[in-house]
Specification:
Two copies of one chain form a homodimer. By secondary structure, chain A is of the alpha/beta class. The first copy, chain A, has three domains: 4-260, 3-Layer(aba) Sandwich (Rossmann fold); 278-432, Thiamin diphosphate (ThDP)-binding fold, Pyr/PP domains (Rossmann fold); 456-580, Rossmann fold, CATH 3.40.50.920. In chain A, 38% of the residues lie in helices and 16% in strands. Chain A has 24 helices and 18 strands. Chain A has a six-stranded parallel beta sheet with strand order 9-8-10-11-13-12, sandwiched between helices. In chain A, strands 2-3-4-6-5 form a five-stranded parallel beta sheet, with helices on both faces. In chain A, strand 3, helix 8 and strand 4 (167-173) form a beta-alpha-beta unit. In chain A, helix 4 (50-59) crosses helix 11, helix 15 (328-339) packs parallel to helix 17 (358-365) and helix 20 crosses helix 24 (569-580). The longest helix of chain A has 22 residues, at 18-39. The first copy, chain A, is globular, with a radius of gyration of 26 Å. Chain A starts with 9 loop residues before the first helix and ends with a helix. Chains A and B meet through helix 7, helix 8, helix 9, helix 10 and helix 15 of A and helix 7, helix 8, helix 9, helix 10 and helix 15 of B.
């Protein structure tokens, strides 16, 4: 029987000796490594936060005392200690729980969290709720050093500091963001580490916090001591822990960025893929462009790995590659500035994190028509955690005036769009990089993309027209082929522009078509298809929009989703037959 | 001839003596006061930044050296010194320029800016653009102390600090945000002022900046001295100026919040309106609620005046009223925390600033189904500056899953919705407070709003159904009345829910209607009507959607917009007749 076997709730942690806690740390680490290597997950941050989690549960009384784990990248040990160890001990149950905190799993989780920099604000709210109802519990936010660069974290700290009552902010400083930390703040954290927390110039104190520093943030005894000191404190306090990301797994301690998140089975930090992908295309294109034009600046907010901007790429571009850290809002305004002063900025980020920048797209970029290029990756329908969906970038981006949002369907279009966007001076351009295997026509794309909102009629038919947007153009083609087999010869359209209607073409369709089908890989509500439906609203043309419903599907297998949304070739063809009756 | 009469470009400032600059300050102040009192505008912040503006233009060489004015609240003097004095000197030309910086007016303005906390990021981008093209000019961001609480400003500072080249951040510390400053940072600014900038614990230094302090930020000579010192500096620097908000107008120095923005003709800070408005209703309702339930917490991000939460209200609620400062992201996460720990939060903010919180609505609130209430004010179509439109809240909010977004049409519905929302525990609820004179039915609303997406069929007719959303329900009624006069008896519907379809009712309409009209006071793209069009897409029902086009109309008179969008009763009736032919 292991020590963990005895832990059925946090109460059981309180009965452990120091020695048992150290043994427990080792057991937890082994389970983290095994599970992550099997089903993927956050390796480094979880390995680094084992001892602090044990010490937190030893000192505080969850769920009365409340923990908020920022971005949930460090919550595995917490889950194991709060009644969910079987999901780490038993490989058959690995997939039954989320990798993020989730109140549906346990009363020890306060929020569903998967985006960064939110914990301090959420915890400040919990503390305020406690205060107005006269509660006395401790409220504890746990935030990594990387997450501190996000604006929401700063806003939270600035407000938490003046709360006037108990709130404990645990800063888990493992000297890393997802990639290397970026920003002036990190020199201050370094200074604090080097002075054992004694430096007078202290970011947290400048915001008004009482402040504690623990040099060995992976030492259970030191941690218990400081947590006991701050427990039930009557004012806001920051406890700054110096921890080791990846602790206990040598490779993870060494290759910190690679081991932040591990894809199951992928354990060679130097592995190079030889498959051509949209990511490798992007990388190669940008390097070539940079070699010709030193005003190109590639910007990424803390997730270069996710978009395959490898170390070689970063080294090659040097100062023309800027990782701004977790700071998506800044990233959008930054590229607007670059574009307005002679640079050619390309920002590349993930669909889910575009959500952090609506106002910056609107005010900093679009309102100013700043000629910047933004590559939106991972947009689409897939079986992700509810916190990391790619469903909402089309409704979010495409309803902002002035933005040109392009949806390439293949390699050649993508490269042409990139080239046009970087070269032009009139528009803010977003490109939805297909989250799909590379598709190629083999023929160079000679489209002039400065003629906005011109759809491509790829095959002329009649009665039915299928408009397949971006990554779903392939699906549109499949539907077309299937229809042909039953004697319907439909028109096939590649709209390429998400942000505008080709009214001329849409009018033309009226002459020989009864039904228009739209296909988009994203949330229908507020999306592309609805605009086509609205356009034809007062005419006799019938329209069916296909896409995802407005929801937060949580780890729902892709096929299940597609069937639900009628997004299979068979179901679409059936619907068409029905509509034509 | 005044001194200002000689200033046709910033170059002319350089020829002035100190005495002339002081005279010029007085002249500029007088023009600010006259213009703001005549056509409304930002009084206090502009009065406080006259000397710094003169000194900046004396030392730096605009437009080669580039200024970015945060939120543009302090740009009037800059406009007067950069060839636009006639628009302040000649009352007939008052309205011909924007109250915000605008590159379409002058090469001395770098961006259209009207939302806060963006200047440092934009300037960092300008600096990066300069660096990659090998330029040498100074880049200067000018940001108020109030704007520093916004997350984007922090992200910008954190990144600007590691730029490695010239960037000069002028912090215009007038000890005020729009209302009183909120947050721990402001104690640090106070400490810096009290120690003449000498305190070791220094927010800006903690982020890595070189730092200068000027106690008398309204003294031209002191300012010129420090600006000359930092001109052409080769690294990031903060110049912290202590200025006086409202300087030169006694009342503005005293009543700083009231004089931040002045409505023409409104000069009594203690004036009380006796007219009943949605704002006064809200205030009274919330006070009554608070008296019954001390877990109610009213939250506002730095704009209590704009939503009429007067000092009396704030005093009455005490700790149950929280102004979080300019920190909209925090505000959303904060109310989620309050709701999850026994409090009943109500956040009230403006449509234009909801834009700063998409991800927080999605991840912090909606994904967690946190039972918080958010009041969205100033949503609608009106002749505002392009930076302050109310057009986009429906597309932004209503396409986020789980959110219930309600559109009351009158006082009674509004109060019932508020009451339901605050009492319930299942949903994140937004309410679009009509930006219109109070409308009242005189009859209590007994609707059970927990039955989601149930539209109200208010008048049963045939052939045509008019769905009038929220503030445009009145317009729908007018259309109905006009139609009746020409022999069409339409059905009238008050949908009340922006975020869902009443499919049962929509199906029923098919039986005796040919045409459905939707009216919404906002951007059509991504909005309410398109969903109705999509719903009916495959049926014989015709649909016409009315609302604003996707654009940033800049100070376009309301009537011009309405005609363009066919949003007048006459044009709608014409369209209906056409469609029924």
């Amino acid at each position: 029987m292991t020590v963990l076997d005895k832990i059925n709730s946090p109460k059981d942690v309180k009965a452990l000796s120091t020695e048992e806690m150290n043994t427990l740390s080792g057991e937890i680490r082994e389970l983290i490594i095994n599970k992550v290597n099997t089903i993927s997950g956050h390796m480094g941050p979880n390995l680094g936060f084992v001892e602090p989690t044990i010490a937190l549960h030893y000192v505080f009384n969850s769920p009365e005392d409340k923990f908020v784990f920022d971005v949930s990248h460090q919550c595995y040990a917490h889950k194991m200690l709060t009644g969910r160890r079987e999901y780490y001990q038993n490989p058959e149950k690995y997939l039954e729980i989320s990798g993020y905190t989730n109140p549906n799993e346990s009363e020890h989780d306060m929020f569903i969290v998967g985006h960064t920099s939110t914990s301090v604000s959420l915890a400040t709210g919990l503390a305020k709720g406690r205060d107005v109802r006269g509660g006395k519990e401790n409220i504890i936010a746990i935030i990594g050093d990387g997450s501190l660069s996000g604006g929401e974290a700063f806003e939270g700290l600035d407000n938490a500091a003046v709360l006037g009552s108990n709130i404990i902010i645990i800063v888990n400083d493992n000297e890393m963001s997802i990639a290397v930390n970026q920003g002036g703040l990190y020199d201050n954290l370094k200074l604090l580490r080097e002075t054992n927390g004694k430096a007078e110039c202290n970011y947290f104190k400048s915001l008004g916090f009482d402040y504690y520093y623990v040099e060995n943030g992976n030492n259970v005894e030191d941690l218990i001591k400081v947590f006991e000191e701050v427990k039930d404190i009557d004012h806001p306090v920051v406890v700054h822990l110096h921890t080791l990301k990846g602790k206990g797994l040598k490779e993870a301690e060494e290759y910190k960025e690679f081991y932040h998140w591990i894809n199951a089975g992928c354990t060679d930090p130097n592995a190079k893929s030889t498959t051509e992908t949209y990511a490798s295309l992007t990388r190669e294109y940008l390097i070539k462009k940079y070699e010709q034009d030193k005003t190109l600046v590639v910007v990424n907010p803390a997730t270069p790995g996710a978009v395959d901007l490898n170390q070689e790429f970063r080294d090659k571009l040097g100062k023309n590659y800027v990782d701004v850290g977790i700071a998506e809002e800044h990233a959008m305004a930054f590229i607007s500035g670059i574009a307005k002063n002679g640079g050619k900025p390309v920002l590349t980020l993930l669909s889910s994190f575009v959500q952090r920048t609506y106002d910056q797209i609107s005010q900093d970029l679009a309102l100013n028509n700043s000629p910047a290029t933004v590559l939106v990756n991972w947009g689409g329908i897939y079986g992700a955690d509810a916190t990391h969906l790619g469903l909402f970038d089309i409704p979010l981006i495409s309803n902002i005036p002035n933005v040109v949002y392009l949806a390439p369907t293949c390699k050649e279009e993508y490269l042409k769009m990139l080239d046009w966007s970087i070269g032009q001076k009139e528009h803010t351009v977003f490109i939805r990089v297909p989250f799909a295997p590379l598709s190629s026509t083999g023929k160079e794309d000679n489209t002039d993309y400065s003629v906005l909102n011109k759809y491509q009629l790829t095959e002329k038919g009649e009665t039915v027209a299928i408009i397949g947007l971006g990554s779903y153009y392939q699906k549109a083609k499949e539907v077309k082929e299937k229809l042909q087999k039953i004697g319907i010869v439909p028109t096939l359209i590649n709209p390429r522009y998400i942000t505008g209607l080709d009214k001329e073409l849409l009018e033309e369709l009226k002459l020989s078509h009864k039904l228009v089908i739209t296909l988009e890989e994203g949330c229908l509500a507020g999306g592309f298809g609805e605009k086509i439906a609205s356009y034809y609203g007062s005419s006799d043309m019938k329209v069916i929009n296909y896409g995802a419903e407005k929801a937060f599907p949580d780890r729902i297998p892709l096929q299940t989703q597609l069937e639900k949304y009628h997004l299979t070739t068979e179901l679409i063809v059936k619907d068409i037959q029905e509509a034509l009756k």
